[in-house]
## 1
Amino acid sequence: MTENIKSTLRDSPLMRWFILVLVSILMFATYWFQDFYSGLKPLMESQLGITSSQFGTLIGLTTIANIFGMIILGGIVLDKWGIRLTAFVFGSVAVIGGIINALGANDVFSSDPATRLRIMIVGRIFFGVGLETTCVLISRTIVKWFKGYELALAMAINMGIGRLGSALGTALSPDIANNNAPTAVTFAASLIAFGFICYIIYLIFDVRIDAQMAAAKESEDEQFKFSDLLKLVQNKSFMLIAFLCVAFYSAVFPFMQYAPDLLVNKFGFSYALPESAAQVNLFGSPMFGTIAIYLGLFLFGVCFPLVPSYIKSKNAKTSSLVIMSLLFIGFIYIFRGTFSAWIVNGPKAASLIPMGTILFTPIFGKMVDNKGKAASIMMLGAFLLIFAHITLSVLNSRILGYCGLFSLGIAFSLVPAAMWPSVAKIVPEYRLGTAYAAMFTIQNWGLGLFFKGIGTVLDWMNPEVVKEIQNIRAGLEAQGLTSVEIGKEMGLLREAHKMPIYNYTIPILMLVGLGIISIFLAYMLKRTSEKEGYGLELPSNH
């Protein structure tokens, strides 16, 4: 069996990493589409007349089909019929969802606000079905190519590329929209289609690797049985890591959708960059300059753990880290003017949360590969989560707010870097599709509750703000202004501090409780995995 494995494509490091890049483009696109609305909340409020509660409904109902087990169905399809059929079916569903969402936003079906919102929600539901199963699909693909090699690092880099999509979606959606929200929605839908095409190209290599591994898979590739679901439920370690997944991600992903608006309302950040801001122009466009800076940060995040791993000499490893650190410091110094403008801009500053994961997740993934301590790392990440939400809800110091954002970025790196490779230790490979699907399903229960819950509580706690914003919009409508003109006028009022501000204290304070639950679950997982011998505290090759 060992001889057969060594003769396959996956034995080539160059081919493994090429495959990772190819499938991660789809991850980038899906995360962009998932999070780009966070930078558009005030524009949708002013241009499309959508309240915080309706905004929560739009992003929250993305999870509705998955709450009722659609991801598990996708996982069953993946384990029973393989990667290729799953990719065609669920990738197509995600693309169709993106198209419906964009057509609805552009008033192709109806210009009635209520009908428009319903159509956009339908599109998000379709996208949600494809999104989560696609994440399962990509995770299963990475395990297929990297198990026994750099699995934790590969998963960490893949997550980093996904977070790059989140960061750029959050940071650039207001620029792409240019006071017209449907433009940003159309761009995001196009990106999903491009990512799907890239994954279709990967399937050519999937056919080849399956043929090469035919003999080696005899002991691993068992057919899916519905009893596998029962076996997962009976696995205490798996259930603990699944509930840890829902508690942790429910405290992060919903927060990300509201983070730009929180920073503007609570800490006085701006939605617009000042005209004096030192922006980088690339090909004559500040947007391309912004993308280049984000890509630079991403490359540093990848190179810090990856380059030393291919250097044998200890002195050379140290030298490489010193050189990269000096280059990174120089990079920050060169663009210091741009960063100083970004850190007081709501969407740009909020995007630094997933950017933190880009820098740190590969490093922590490499650490899990080499040192282990996965359960302990998850406990530390949960503690940082509590600190972050306390500083961003109860306290009013901008400096502590920055500390909270930084802590959240670290936590968002630590926990996924340890969690997802741990599942591959707890669950047999032939059951991984179902296992990841079950985790995403449980995760969606929490996401659906808190996506909607934060917006609903925000409206409940700020009824006078909701009423005043609606009155301002109604007054501008009475003047005969178009929706685009209304969005622009209300944006100017917001930048002049003439719009009412939301109080986010209670909606964000709710998330502290999820951090406490996460610590408890991570501690129980550590104890249980030690008893059951899964070796979560051991390096990846044990």
## 2
Amino acid sequence: MGAVAVVRDITIQKKIEESLRVSEERLRLAQTRGEVGVWDWNVVTNDLHFTPELEQLYGLSPGTIKTYDDWRELTHPDDIEKIEFERDNQIAQHKPFDLEFRIFHHSGEMKWLSTRGGATYDDNGQVKRVLGINTDITNRKKAEEILQTTLLRFYKILSSMSASVLLVTADNKVEFVNQEFCDYFHLNEEPDYFIGYTSLNMTRVIKSAYRNPEEALLRINDIVNNYKPVHGEEVLMRDGKPYGRLWLHLDITEREKTEEKLHESNTKLIKEVNDHQQTELRLKDLVNELKRSNKELEQFAYVSSHDLQEPLRMVALFTQLLERRYKGKLDEDADDYIKFIVEGAKRMKLLIDDLLSYSRLNSSSSEFGPIKMDKVMGNVLSNLQLISEEKNAEIKVHEPLPTIIGDESQMMHVFQNLVANGIKFNDKESPEINISAQEEENGWIFSVSDNGIGIVPEYQAQIFEIFKRLHDRDEYPGTGIGLAICQKIIDRHGGKIWVESSKGKGSIFYFSIPSKK
């Protein structure tokens, strides 16, 4: 029958929508560039919304945070009660809040965040939503920690000075007083008593120590108003806009007698400082050269050992062929010579294999991670089952072993070497090996004890050196590299390895692993 249409002008609406879109883009860009994240907590439903920028500050993928409880799990437990109390206190007073707290970043690193925000309320004054922004202040916190450490060292130096020291801030408040100052002006109170005193109050306290108090106070005021260093009097101040004033009072009664000695001491000190600086530079160059040299030596050892494998295999192969084909067909000397070559090739292969293992410790090392040492020992016992049965050895693991942070394959190598040595270097009919661990303040100390032949004290240090052997190969076979590899592994884990032993009474090998690398 027909149609009816209504047409209205929405130009203004479109402009508003476009303006809103541009504003949102600008806000999003500002948040991204400024590393600022926004959050919105619905107190009624407990829902919590993080903007992508905020989730990025946490190292999280979008949509990970959904509730207030999700946020609490990522917040350091020592900070939660404090920030919740201060936040709720400000919200109860209808005031904004400004707080700082620590979080667990997805990377495992601890980070500091600053949060600023406030709440919205219903008609009854009840909180509906809490909103805020977060910024990463980790670098600032680290800088503050460094500054605090520097200030503590500075105060410690001032406390130990033989001169009386008074430090006054720019707002004329006493910040530091040492004991010498109290003694110098005959004050009975402890130094901390005067912290927070105004400059005016402090001058009234000390003026009685001057021979001419009023004249001394006039001179002090003149010094303070000019903001210039004063030579030969009571104070040394910074040029420019001052942070504060550092007053040093020295008894110069004996100055004439000590000036010459002081000059000699200063000259000697300058020379020692210069010598020390030169020594540090030379030491730095030497350390760098040693690092480069060690790296080259490791590479050389690896390449050399690897390249020796093939010709050695050829020597062993053809010597064994000679032995099978001509054994008994030549004279006895020839048979002995062939036997010596075969045995030598076998020993050289063992030596090359161990040398390769030693040179590849750093290049082939795995990343550190949690290691269940009970599992490691289970693998070690399985690997050594055959030799244990042959030697009738008894291996005991005392109590559950701990979980540590380290390289699992390298830890297994250490235990396997120590346990195997305890069995090999043993003259008893039934070798006894005991493995245990004891927790210390900074980590764990593991021990592997045996009832073997023992080691005399003068040789206990050198057994950890590469190629160092205490016995003939015919008596106890081996290459002399095993314990050197153990020491290198323990060094990489930040620990130490040592032995306690005496000849004929067995040995106890200890090694420490710190709680954290």
## 3
Amino acid sequence: MLLTKSRPLLPVFPLIALGIYLSQFAVNVQTVGLVSAVLAVLWLYQEYRGHGSAPFCFWLLLVLAGYLLAVTDGGHLPDCDHPLALTGRVLDVRQLSYNQRVIVYVPEIKSRLALHLPIDLELRPGAWLWFYGQIEKPDRARNPGEFDYQEYLRSQAVYAVMEPTKFKVLSRKSWLIHLLTSLQDYVRLNYIRHMRFPELTTALVLGDRNALGKEQQELWERLGITHLLAISGTHIGLVAAILWSVVRYAPVSRNWKSVVVCVVLLFYVLLSGAKPSAWRAWLAAVIVMGGAKQRHLDGLHIWSLVGVVMLVANPAYLWQIGFQLSFVASGAIILWRPAIRKLTVMFPHGFIGKLLSNFFTSIAVSLVAQLSLAPLLLKYFSQIALLAPIATFLLVPFVAALVVGGLLLGVFGAAAAPVGWILDAVTRIASRLCSLLAKADYLIVAPPIPGNLIFAWYLYFVGAGSIARRNYLRLGKPTWCRWVSLSLAILLIVSMPNSIIRPLEITFLDVGQGDCILIRTPFQQHILIDGGGDSVYWQQRGRNVGLTTVVPYLKYRGIEHLDLVILSHPHEDHLHGLLAVLEHFSIGMVVDNGQTHTTPSYAKYLELILAKEIPYQRLNAGDQLRLRGGVNLTVLHPHTFRMGTSSDLNNNSLVINLSYQGRNALFTGDIDWEGMEALLHSGTLSKVELVKVPHHGSKAALVPEFYQVIQPRYAVISVGKNSFGHPHPDLLAHLERAEITAVRTDLYGAVSFYVWNGFFGRYLRPR
């Protein structure tokens, strides 16, 4: 099978990457290992017997191999509850706002740690540290859209953090890293001595974006040309061309010349920070110089082989944004290059035709890369620069000049001092050009696109590229049939009814000790129940969960308009966060139970409703809100205000039942046992799949008959750090005895549930 001519190596990289991606979900590793062993035996038997199903077993085996590769790469972290004294070698130093993050490799535990150390401590890669402290797991993002420190560190192959209480810089150093840092300082010093504007050259040659000012970085981001700053194929190709022009006349064989070039390129990769894009370009250069043509390896083969080598060496690369962007863009360019080359034949011969052909090729390559990256750019940056292809075409010559000249000046220093004047002139022209382009500022700002559209996007993009590559755009009858069939398949996926392709989503945000629930219907209607909040004590100290959590989450989801805002009751932990929502979003309607309160937050709430002329309605038991697509909200409580209870505000909370496609979810506000008994006596309760546990899981919310009647599969407890003892152990014990799955926001962060084509399920949260 591996010796066929149908690019057998091509699927290896994507399938191993898929396995690594799946490793973030909780699956029994022993089971996967056992299945892999059985599947390997089955595959070998089928290969021996020549069965046609052998390739499918092999592909599945690759996915499982990627999974096992990732789950066994987490390092050997000691599981202990006491501080440790360790020694580690500094790999990376990053200045933060109030401290610095230092990534060290610790030989004792054969793993990496992220240390948070004082910002005034001078450290360089290669130094050795002795430190003492407690190893902990990094924090996860509590809500989607928040910075996920755990995921970020995982992309650096770091799985634990420490804030040392004691530390000391040791005298020993790694000679290789010390050599590299010394050479970096030597190159930087040459730029500073012989250039007036060394920042851009430093960033391009050494891969150090921090050399650029914040404004210049933002300018390049708006233009969509930050990829030019990454040490990648352009840089490695230029360096390789310079090196080959030097060694080509050496009296040694071609193989030795290739070895010399590859070794020097490796040194440059290490010198520039050893980023994933640089490793990709270097490995591709090694394979090409090693005789890829003689072994009939085309660009896609090389692309896949390089990806496999990098993921086997370090599975954590898959989580790095640079790795993803680099491989997606380079794969797209290789895939579409034959089609682009075929189109260039249409240009006339001669000098003008060649110029037009080169211009078209540059624009087409940049456009293909931009189209391939669109979903990822929206996912990570929520914007796409429309001018990126033009800006890339115009700036590539300047980048090439700065890289070549920068290498000469960095290596030869004073002997190449006149080059510094030229580089300054090129830098000024490039900066002026960027400023002119930025005046247009054509940006598409949008939220991450849905998963089905991402799938359709890449299916069509890769499918069209494969057809164009195979047929070189010879639009005969067979090709037209493939194009039409593929287009119809994509159209079918995208144009299916919303109720089929989009689920109803219920998300409980982690707002600490409070409630905030977003309901998103298949028809893009958005309902927000409560907004979380902070006590008056914390409000006076500047804490505002609405501004720090709720509003950013809604913007991350691309929500600009809320069709309905529901306030269950006017306590601070439900109301205060809504104030920021009312200020920052357009609101279709606000509803509550009509119960007033005397707090400043409630006064501000009424003021915002009047000032923004938001429609307002008071709801009572029996009222219904019917939304598009069969989504119904029915108010079950209160019929009338209950007085003289343990907490009238809590026990008069709106209790709402959501029904859709035969599935039900119950939102209970903060009712206590008096409110729950009133609901039981009303006879309006029925079986539900999901219940929001009343009053953050307090002891007063434990009425066993209530849970016997509604028989939920899931019970969500919206709770944070508190001094009330929520959730109460008795309530948790009752839920466990009743075989109801309890989900706590203080343990899981934001949790989502879906109703899709009559099925109800919980979002499988990554580990």
